[in-house]
């Protein structure tokens, strides 16, 4: 038999085919060997990766009947109705398999919605789970029925379902790697009646890290619509719907190019980026001001490992896996993390010219805080950390930013650190140890998702890089294990801005505020005076000062021509004080000396 698997799903298709083929088509071999064939299979992978399509293609090639169970269709608010609907589906599957002698797949889509863990379930959900377990156990051993459950959250399923005799075998669908994405794109592009000769598919594939099959289909459709608009829009003022109804595409050769995909990439968000990833506008050093020293250190930590990789390897030098930003509150730690996300993409792209794309964008930016991590349920916090790192690897280059790191992990030397923080710390240490920072160009690296048992090809190029950035106001509360080599091994102190930095910050802030700066008038803003009067002000304090001055100017003149002058700043200084005391500054300087 010649098997035709869907593009990018070859391994999962082969495994599912075998698990269904032998029990249903050659069940007599199990009888002869006195073996019980598997009655259930759990199919899991990210949303849109092709789980349902995989079942349909296996059933089609083996000429099997598929009975579908969708949680949205069988669940009912009425007592006992959902259990009844479930039983009817199982009865139908057994009837077809026995009376008509047709091997049958009973496919339960989004099984986690039907059978969530009973630890977190209501009484109603618990009854449904019990009914499903009873029905699974009731499938007669020699019947031609195999149950296939599909989910993108395997750890959310009640553990009793994953025992032998139920969903005892599992098939994990990998996120498509570079070769798989190329195959999927070829498949969809061939079905489009457009000219793609001038399309650089390798460049396109480099820009679709983290995209699953459904994402790539949506990407091709969006690019195709853009190409259609681009081709005919100059000749027609019709909207998209009218364009499709009235334009005869058979008379024109539509060319699909990278510009169409540039547009589509800004519209179609891959499934892997829809959770936890922030839509980050590019932030540059010039947008902030006063961070010249920090800029040099960051560029050294990011650019050198990419630009001088072989030299560093020959010298036995390792680039930092993580960067810890510490200093007083309001001194631009979060802003620097966003700049790092922007700069990281630029350096990765310029270093990897053969595989990097010019389709633009910044690194995927994952912002994590203690409020997002901690959960009252045992194991949830650790699972969240593992999930963040897994997603970051998938959509790399990426930056994971842990804000207020000290509140997330604590320190094992502190008696106030609770058990959850200790488990989170242990998980974070393991994940950071698993980040490969200098992959060989000829080596394949794999990461196994602990949550989903999914083997992810990291494509062994620098585009799979993950950089971890932490920020804290209390570096003395950080566990010492996190500061060892291979973890947060680059420590950057962001002090209160000095005189020159304050002057530069004020100048940067006033770019976007109508003011008398450089207007050579009696109320001209004097940056030297303001920089002198804002001693011990943090960057956030200076922002507040500018905002207060703008409000004072607005109260003075409510017209659109209102401008901020020196008098407004003098008045604002009576309202806005420095938020950082001298004692705090001495504390941070002492910590800096110890580090």
Secondary structure elements and their pairing?
Elements: H1 10-25, H2 27-32, E1 40-44, H3 51-62, E2 65-70, H4 71-74, H5 81-99, E3 104-109, H6 111-114, H7 123-138, E4 145-151, E5 169-172, H8 178-191, H9 201-206, H10 213-232, H11 240-246, H12 258-267, E6 277-278, H13 292-307, H14 309-314, E7 322-326, H15 333-351, E8 364-368, H16 370-373, H17 380-394, E9 398-402, H18 405-409, H19 419-433, E10 446-449, E11 454-457, E12 466-472, E13 490-493, H20 499-509, H21 527-533, H22 539-556, H23 566-573, H24 582-594
Helix pairs in contact: 1-3, 5-7, 8-10, 10-12, 13-15, 17-19, 20-21, 20-22, 22-23
InterPro entries: AAA+_ATPase, AAA_ATPase_domain, AAA_lid_3, ATPase_AAA_core, ATPase_AAA_CS, P-loop_NTPase
Domain AAA+ ATPase: 37-177, 319-498
GO molecular function: ATP binding; ATP hydrolysis activity
In short:
The chain is α/β, with parallel strands linked by helices and 595 residues long. The chain has helices at residues 10-25, 27-32, 51-62, 71-74, 81-99, 111-114, 123-138, 178-191, 201-206, 213-232, 240-246, 258-267, 292-307, 309-314, 333-351, 370-373, 380-394, 405-409, 419-433, 499-509, 527-533, 539-556, 566-573, 582-594, and strands spanning 40-44, 65-70, 104-109, 145-151, 169-172, 277-278, 322-326, 364-368, 398-402, 446-449, 454-457, 466-472, 490-493.
